[in-house]
Amino acid sequence: MFLRLTGLIGIVACLCGPASGALYRSPLSVAVSSDGKTLYVSDKTAGCLVVLNAEDGRKIREVAIEGGPRGVALSADGNTLYVAQRKANSIALVDPGKAVVTGNIAVGTWPGAIAVDSNNRRLYSCNRGNHTVSVVDLAEGKQVKQVAVVRDPAFAAITADGSRLIVPNFMPLDVFTNTELAAEVSIIDTASMKQVARVKLPPGSTMAAGAWVDPKGRWAYVVHMLGRFDLPVTQLQHGWVHTCALSIIDVAAGTRLATILLDDLNRGVADPRAVVGSADGETLWISHSGVHEVSTLNIGRIHELLAGNIPVDLAGLKDGGRDNIWIRIKNDRKEMDELSRDLTALHISGTISRTPSGGNGPAGLALSPDENTLYVVNYYTGTVGVLDAVGGKLLKTFPVGKQPKPDAARRGEIYFHDATRCLQSWHSCASCHLDGGRIDGLPWDFMRDGINNGKDVISLVNMHHTPPHNRLATRANPLECMVTGVLGSHGLEADPGDVDDLLAYVKSLTPELNPNIPKFAGAARRGKVLFEGKAKCSSCHPAPYFTNREMYDVGIHSPNEPGARYDTPSLIEAYRTAPYYHDGRAVTIKDALSRRNDPKGLHGKLRVLSPQELDDLVAYVLSL
Question: Is the pLDDT confidence value at 350 over 90?
Answer without folding.
Answer: yes
